[in-house]
């Protein structure tokens, strides 16, 4: 079988460069192109050289339609509005799209989901194996413990991160809600300030920290009288997300159009 041709949108960014490097180190796939927004100083630069690799002769462009025409799969760690546009291009071309973007509104998510009718879309709030295992553990623990155990989710990221709580924190909160068979949005407490009153039983609370260059720390706390259970994942390098995204693209190679997630990719679904 021929190698999967992978394109990278946002190829000159931090994640983009890691994705290019990861593809170069992974068997069964090759980089076929990459894009940056129109006007970027990186347009026309060698995509491999920007990632610290030997030049490939493949230059970064600004035509995403052309990229989707040429690629078998495109990987997207960009911004919500851009990811929606890319999903529409994937649907038009009938291609694979792997999305690691977070911070989507419900409306944006609905648009992407609709594109799964004609594209193979793999989407994950976090692409790492460890985080997805943590989500499964969170769901199982929440199903076992009743609401005498308060659920709190603590996350910390670098000071450049623009959305809060993180997509991963929300992934974990939704896993806890699923374990308790409750609607997440009805029990989520996403911020506390001032005189808030006592904590409401059954709520899933979120606490957010930002600072330095922290890649991503997440802890799910189950707290009851006189005992506490904590489940933690700490990311040491963004390469774990790139590795998972490339794995997702390869996994999707022979799949029919539809919407998939990392639980599907890793075989962790129920």
Keywords for this entry:
270 residues; alpha/beta; Rossmann fold; Dihydrodipicolinate Reductase, domain 2; 2 domains; five-stranded mixed β-sheet; 11 strands; elongated
Structural commentary:
With 270 residues, the protein is of the alpha/beta class. 37% of the residues lie in helices and 24% in strands. The protein has ten helices and eleven strands. It has helices spanning 14-25, 47-50, 64-70, 80-93, 106-115, 129-144, 167-180, 184-187, 239-251, 262-266, and strands spanning 4-9, 29-35, 73-76, 96-99, 120-123, 150-157, 188-189, 204-210, 216-224, 227-235, 258-261. It has a six-stranded parallel sheet, sandwiched between helices. The protein has a five-stranded mixed sheet with strand order 7-8-6-9-10. Helix 4 packs parallel to helix 5 (106-115) and helix 6 runs parallel beside helix 7 (167-180). It starts with a strand and ends with a helix. The model has no long low-confidence stretch (mean pLDDT 96).
Uncertain regions spanning at least 5 consecutive residues: none
**How many domains would you count in the coordinates?**
2
**Full CATH superfamily name of the largest domain:** NAD(P)-binding Rossmann-like Domain
Q: Can you name the CATH architecture of the largest domain?
A: 3-Layer(aba) Sandwich
Percentage of residues in strands: 15-25%
Largest sheet: 6 strands, parallel
Outline: elongated
